[in-house]
Write a structure and sequence with these properties.
117 residues, mainly alpha, 58% helix, globular
């Protein structure tokens, strides 16, 4: 009887953990891959964002369920953009409107992710 109880308990814990991780914000790897095609536009090398840029960011935006999700994605993007010195605020800030994405916070190199609500 004890063995059955512990087996059932272990299965329930596993199901709970899987359910919790499936609702988590996207990983930085996912964020990076969805946003990578935006670099040419954000650095002024392309007149418009690549279709993959807008599609990727729209898919990313669709995963946002909570303020913590928004903050996590913001932190990932801020960390990633540090690797691209050519990214300019004047282009970066236009991506949400050009791609028709409502992010509910100003997109800027200076955005404080912790102040997003």
């Amino acid at each position: 009887m004890k063995t059955s109880f512990f087996s059932l308990f272990a299965i329930l814990c596993l199901v709970y953990c899987i359910a919790r991780t499936s609702n988590a914000a996207a990983t930085c790897g996912t964020v990076d891959s969805k946003a990578s095609s935006c670099i040419a536009y954000a650095s002024g090398k392309a007149a418009t964002p690549a279709p993959a840029c807008c599609t990727g960011l729209q898919q990313l935006a669709a995963t946002v369920k909570t303020v913590d999700d928004r903050k996590a994605i913001c932190r990932c993007l801020k960390a990633a953009v540090k690797n691209f010195a050519a990214v300019q605020d004047k282009f970066l800030s236009k991506i949400p409107s050009v791609c028709k994405i409502n992010v509910n916070f100003p997109v800027s190199l200076n955005t404080d992710c912790e102040k997003i609500h």
